[in-house]
């Protein structure tokens, strides 16, 4: 018996037969587990063919199941083939009518791009223990609350989501980041929403990722509106992290959800874009906070 062919047939059947969308929790959970085990064993071509199905299956699922499917999808993006001229009819992912799925995907991708190579979550790390080249931050450590120190720009919860059950090796993480950049280059998501991803990726410590993102940013410089409030808000949000202010509901943000500011390496990529934006100068109090934090870091912008 050709067990590899039988496994491939079973995985494809479960992914295409609608088991993902069933209302029976037991059957749905079994399908997720089966696909988690079988999907990585499929030929790369078949994984690419089924990748859009993974995205469709995320809709309406609990967070843990969405994360499991995301861990299957992200490595596949490196191997995806996209049309030279992006057309809706030819695009492998049809996300135009799935805003919730797009936001879910973009949020997870941003955390993958922020994840340092070789980071281990089960160690209580300080900024000084982050791998060399990843930069440092002047924010306070999360260790005081008994939570392992997350990477710069991330929360403990976000880092735990990206690491998942089986952490990627540095080489696998590099491929994931390259796949994300390729996905953005192919215009599979709105350009307005993906600018921050390219800025983050252009600061990556791996030359292949940083070069690919930097080239894509330069090719779109004339198309990007650096005075767009959506873009500038995202830059400020990533730069500052979750500063100790109360949320709209009046409750203090939980420590495991609090995002630290990004590393100095990423900040040095963000600042030039803020300097060329008139909108950035008008956004109070973020403009003052960035100016103060930048000066306190003993870096000169002149």
Provide an overview of this structure.
It comes from Laticauda laticaudata. Keywords: Repeat. The chain is an all-alpha fold and 302 residues long. Helices cover 53% and strands 0% of the residues. It contains 13 helices and no strands. The chain has helices spanning 3-16, 25-38, 44-57, 63-76, 99-114, 156-163, 170-185, 191-201, 207-219, 229-240, 264-275, 278-282, 286-296. It is globular, with a radius of gyration of 20 Å. Residues 124-144 and 298-302 have low confidence and may be disordered.
Q: Strands, helices and their partners?
A:
Layout: H1 3-16, H2 25-38, H3 44-57, H4 63-76, H5 99-114, H6 156-163, H7 170-185, H8 191-201, H9 207-219, H10 229-240, H11 264-275, H12 278-282, H13 286-296
List low-confidence stretches: 124-144, 298-302
Q: How far apart lie the N and C ends?
A: 69 Å
Shape: globular
Please report the number of helical segments: 13
The percent range for helix content is 40-55%
Going by helix content, strand content and strand pairing, the class is mainly alpha
Strand content: under 5%
Radius of gyration: 20 Å
Order of helices and strands: HHHHHHHHHHHHH
């Amino acid at each position: 018996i050709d067990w590899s062919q039988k496994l491939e047939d079973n995985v494809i059947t479960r992914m295409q037969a609608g088991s993902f969308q069933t209302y029976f929790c037991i059957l749905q959970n079994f399908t997720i587990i089966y696909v988690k085990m079988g999907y990585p064993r499929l030929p790369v071509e078949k994984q690419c063919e089924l990748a859009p199905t993974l995205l469709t299956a995320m809709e309406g699922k609990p967070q843990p199941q969405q994360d499991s499917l995301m861990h299957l999808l992200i490595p596949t993006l490196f191997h995806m083939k996209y049309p030279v001229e992006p057309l809706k009819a030819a695009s492998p992912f049809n996300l135009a009518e799935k805003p919730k799925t797009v936001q879910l995907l973009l949020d997870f991708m941003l955390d993958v791009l922020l994840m340092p190579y070789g980071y281990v979550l089960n160690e209580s790390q300080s900024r000084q223990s982050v791998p060399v080249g990843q930069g440092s931050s002047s924010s306070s450590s999360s260790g005081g609350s008994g939570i392992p120190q997350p990477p710069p720009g991330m929360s403990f919860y976000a880092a735990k989501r990206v690491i998942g059950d089986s952490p990627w090796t540095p080489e696998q993480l590099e491929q994931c980041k390259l796949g994300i950049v390729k996905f953005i280059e192919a215009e599979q998501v709105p350009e307005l929403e993906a600018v921050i991803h390219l800025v983050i990726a252009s600061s990556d410590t791996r030359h292949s990722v940083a070069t690919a993102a930097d080239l894509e940013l330069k090719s779109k410089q004339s198309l990007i509106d650096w005075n767009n409030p959506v873009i500038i808000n995202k830059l400020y949000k990533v730069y500052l992290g979750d500063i100790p202010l109360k949320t709209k509901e009046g409750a203090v943000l939980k420590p495991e959800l609090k995002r630290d500011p990004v590393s100095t390496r990423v900040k040095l990529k963000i600042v030039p874009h803020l300097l060329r934006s008139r909108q950035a100068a008008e956004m109070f109090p973020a403009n003052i906070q960035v100016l103060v934090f930048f000066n306190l870091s003993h870096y000169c912008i002149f």
